[in-house]
């Protein structure tokens, strides 16, 4: 497969999609874990969050290590781990086993979330790199939708673990196709080996990572509570609401591609991000206000997903411009992943209690807080200096 071609970019993109499905495929299974393992809401929120532990501690250092061993190798390892953990879920018989597997599953994210964008950046250039990074930004909604659909179709049945079997098969297919991954050329004269912690000292990647963390807080929080909120508001099952959310999540792709088009036409990323953030706050009111008709709430959800996809695309597309050294692509992407993982870990602990309490104005309040924080954190143009310089 030709390095930098769209088929090559598409294959790399699939690693992000299958990895993100690991985050969400557990969400429709809350009732099954309650029935089969006696988990309460707090225990289930912890089980959701355990997958983020490896990235929370290892993503940036892991990204620096990936810069040394090669992003291609790291993606192959990610696919193999994906097969192993999903088979392990099928065999697990106790809650401690499920928890241990959930933590191990997080290693997929350490590998894929750092290696995939680094491999895209190292095998593309110019306008194609910008379009490829905009496409990469959509891996989260596609993966989240895939995960919700994988388990949503099995939730509440005797074969409630069926989604894990399907996920294992998909990772196995990806592992089989890994020999098609491109091999980036090493430019002549490039011999630098940045320090393992050097990414922490660059203000550009740090600010961009913190901005991305605010998007994760809002996006993953909504994906966590919306099936339960929508089901309660409109008298449907959580499984059905999860499938609805999975389908509408895909509109984030449209938002990401539209943002990429605006950026390609010269719109400043900071201005676009500011406008999107204001609209996100407005959309959240219709999303979480009780008593709204089902059709109107679905329309608000579509708007929310379009805006979310656009904001993620803006942040992801800014990654090449804030990285000081092209050889640190995986480390910078790892920093995004690490802060996102830390945010993902605490997000269910904040959003699920609001859902269970029924205090819906707090949903709008946390959205406003996250959106405003993102606007202040987004790095302006030419922000790539080292902290303390």
Task: Characterise this structure.
- By secondary structure, the chain is mostly helical.
- The protein contains 17 helices and no strands.
- The chain has a single domain (6-179, 197-377), classed as Growth Hormone, Chain: A, CATH 1.20.1250.20.
- It is globular.
Keywords:
389 residues, mainly alpha, Growth Hormone, Chain: A, 0% strand
What is the count of helical runs?
Answer: 17
Within the CATH hierarchy, at the fold level, what is the topology? Growth Hormone, Chain: A
Task: Give me the CATH superfamily.
Answer: MFS general substrate transporter like domains
Return residue spans where pLDDT drops below 50 for at least 5 consecutive residues.
384-389
Looking at the structure, what is the overall shape? globular
Q: What string gives the helices and strands in order?
A: HHHHHHHHHHHHHHHHH
Structure described in brief:
By secondary structure, the protein is mostly helical.
Draw up the topology in text.
Blueprint: H1 6-24, H2 30-37, H3 41-49, H4 53-69, H5 71-91, H6 95-123, H7 126-136, H8 139-152, H9 162-176, H10 203-234, H11 238-249, H12 251-264, H13 269-288, H14 294-317, H15 319-322, H16 329-357, H17 361-377
């Amino acid at each position: 497969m030709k390095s930098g071609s769209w088929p090559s970019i598409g294959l790399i993109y699939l690693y992000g999609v299958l990895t993100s499905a690991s985050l969400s495929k557990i969400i429709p299974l809350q009732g099954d874990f309650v029935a089969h393992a006696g988990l309460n809401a707090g225990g289930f929120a912890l089980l959701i969050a355990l997958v983020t532990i490896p990235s929370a501690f290892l993503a940036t250092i892991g990204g620096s290590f990936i810069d040394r061993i090669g992003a291609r190798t790291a993606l192959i390892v990610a696919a193999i781990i994906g097969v192993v953990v999903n088979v392990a879920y099928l065999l697990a018989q106790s809650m401690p086993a499920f928890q241990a597997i959930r933590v191990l599953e997080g290693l997929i994210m350490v590998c894929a979330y750092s290696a995939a964008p680094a491999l895209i950046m190292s095998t593309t250039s110019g306008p194609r790199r910008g379009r490829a990074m905009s496409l990469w930004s959509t891996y989260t909604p596609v993966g989240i939708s895939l995960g919700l659909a994988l388990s949503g179709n099995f939730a509440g049945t005797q074969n409630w673990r069926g989604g894990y079997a399907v996920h294992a098969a998909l990772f196995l297919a990806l592992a089989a196709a890994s020999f098609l991954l491109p091999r980036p050329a090493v430019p002549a004269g490039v011999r630098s080996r940045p320090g393992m912690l050097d990414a922490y000292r660059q203000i550009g990647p740090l600010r961009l990572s913190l901005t991305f963390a605010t998007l994760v807080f809002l996006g993953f929080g909504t994906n966590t509570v919306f099936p339960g909120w929508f089901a309660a508001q409109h008298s449907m099952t959580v499984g059905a609401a999860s499938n609805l959310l999975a389908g509408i999540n895909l509109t984030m792709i449209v938002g990401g591609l539209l943002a990429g088009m605006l950026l390609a036409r010269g719109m400043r990323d900071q201005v676009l991000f500011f406008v999107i953030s204001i609209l996100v706050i407005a959309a959240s009111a219709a999303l979480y206000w009780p008593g709204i008709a089902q059709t109107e709430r679905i329309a608000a959800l579509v708007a929310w997903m379009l805006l979310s996809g656009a904001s993620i695309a803006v942040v992801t597309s800014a990654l090449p411009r804030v990285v000081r050294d092209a050889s640190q692509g995986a480390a910078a992407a790892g920093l995004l992943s690490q802060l996102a993982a830390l945010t993902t870990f605490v997000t269910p602990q904040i959003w699920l209690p609001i859902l269970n309490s029924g205090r819906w104005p707090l949903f709008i309040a946390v959205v406003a807080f996250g959106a405003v924080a993102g606007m202040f954190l987004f790095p302006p143009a030419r922000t790539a200096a080292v902290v303390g310089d």
